[in-house]
Amino acid sequence: MTSIANGAGLSAAVLILGIIIFVCVLLNSASTRRGLPMLLAFIVFGIVCGNVGHIPIYLDDRSYASDVCTIALIFIMFYGGFGTRWKSARSVAPESALLASLGVFATAFLTGLFCHFALKWNWIESFLLGSVVSSTDAASVFSILRNNRLSLKNNTASILEVESGSNDPAAFMLTAVMISVINGNTDAGHIVWMIFAQIIIGTICGLFIAQAGLFLMRRIPFTTSGFDSLMVFAIAIVSYSLPDILGGNGYLSAYIVGIIMGNNSFHGRRKLVGFFDGINGLMQMIIFFILGLLARPQALWNAFPPAIVITAVLLLLARSIAVGAILTPFRKYPLKQQLLINFAGLRGASSIVFAIIASAGCPGIDNDIFSIVFCIVLISIGIEGTLIPKVSRKLDMIDTSNDVMKSFSDFEDETTIQFGKLTIERGSKWDGVQLKETKLPKGLLVCRVVKPSGTDPEKKIRIIPDGNTTINAGDIVIFCSQSYSSDKELHIIEKEVNDGSKWQGRSISDYNAGNSEQILMILRDQESIIPDGGTLIHSGDILFVNAEL
């Protein structure tokens, strides 16, 4: 029998780790092709490894598992913020923030009431269970949306993304408070201070670390490839550990740092999305695999009846009341959308981590919260997750005119075509010319022409053109071409223009004349500008430069 906690030789442990990651990656590919919830496969794999075979990987040390999962959740929280596009999320930020805070409290409270009155649990353990399962899991939802290519109406995907990415800190705070109460720290002043410190210290540390991280990323010249990724990796770790040492909410801080750094410019930011996407996937594999290792079939069998009932209460009562009470006053979310948002509130990685933390921190509790939460997550992902596509269609919430893949950072990498646009200026060579007379090179196609309406300038007329379509001044011409990987013949670097730079106030033509480089794009105040020779360079601009290899 092999014990991971005690170790059975470094080489054997490393070999087992490599095999586990290898199999998890294969499971990820298989689940993507078959449209199954990806993380469900990791749970099953962990159960098999922990309970089946001549030499099971036996893991019983929940304190050890708690430490590993806590570290894993740091990067999940950081990436939840880093991968959020604030421009698209801004419009749903108020309601998402309320769902991530008041919605979590309401869900925990109502679930706790049910456990006490219906299941006859004591008050403290009832609210501990409610706290643990009060947050939702973004990874599970978006894995299902991605695999099934489900694009949802009325910004539903954005609401789910922001809510699920930001509601874990509130659930962790409630869980920490209940653990403190169970361990005898019942003084009201202590609890009030704990809640205050969690929010205030976590927020202040998050803001400070984010600004410090941006300063470092913009000032340090990373001469070795990959060191910028290591720097942000370290910033993510500090974003949790520093506020946690000071008594704050480390997960809240990590999310704040992630969302600020992910929506500000610094050298190499774009490639870090892919890096942390891989880290995020690995951390989820670890959490769900450890969950499977800790699970014991007999305990799961005993936990399934209460888990089924609690899952039903979460879906039909607790979360539905929270979602309805929060979204209805906004008057822009119809009932069918509220029903889908409620149904898509899957339990996942964070609930698992909080359950492990609770079981490790409260070993004397009467109920097996870990096994019950395990079953809740299993039911939520396996049943609710599988039914999300059908429920979305039944509620008529599918947006057939859009592509959900645009919500993900790797959209360009998964398509073989790319698009560009050109606004036709008066007097240009294309003004008043039929499309067939433009003599476009082979491999470049005009796929859409957007013309201003003659009666209402705010309205647009969209045309799928042919050769006889006439292009006029004011038209927007959208091109389609084959996508191209820029890592072979092109070398694109980012340069920031600081105050006092010799290029500040100079034109693009001046820059190109004095360098063997070409400025392809300027990022200015989050706006992308394709420059011409007369475009002036401003302080604060991020220049995307085509440099020599």
Describe the fold and architecture:
The protein is 57% helix and 10% strand. It is of the alpha+beta class and 549 residues long. The chain has 3 domains: 406 residues, Na+/H+ antiporter like fold, CATH 1.20.1530; 66 residues, 2-Layer Sandwich (Alpha-Beta Plaits); 57 residues, Alpha-Beta Plaits, CATH 3.30.70.1450. Strands 3-8-5-6 form a 4-stranded antiparallel β-sheet, with no helix packed on it. A 4-stranded antiparallel β-sheet has the order 9-12-10-11, with helices on one face. The chain has a two-stranded parallel sheet with strand order 1-2. Helix 2 packs across helix 13, helix 7 runs parallel beside helix 17 and helix 10 runs parallel beside helix 12. The chain starts with a strand and ends with a strand. The N terminus is likely disordered.
CATH fold title of the largest domain: Na+/H+ antiporter like fold
Q: Please, how many helices? A: 18
Quickly name the level 1 CATH class of the largest domain: Mainly Alpha
Number of structurally distinct domains: 3
Indicate the overall shape.
globular
Quaternary organisation: single chain
Task: Return the string of H and E elements.
Answer: EHHEHHHHHHHHHHHHHHHEEEEEEEHEEE
Strand order in the largest sheet: 3-8-5-6
Report the strand count: 12
Helix and strand content put the structural class at: alpha+beta
**CATH architecture annotation of the largest domain:** Up-down Bundle
Q: How much helix, percentage-wise, in residues? A: 55-70%
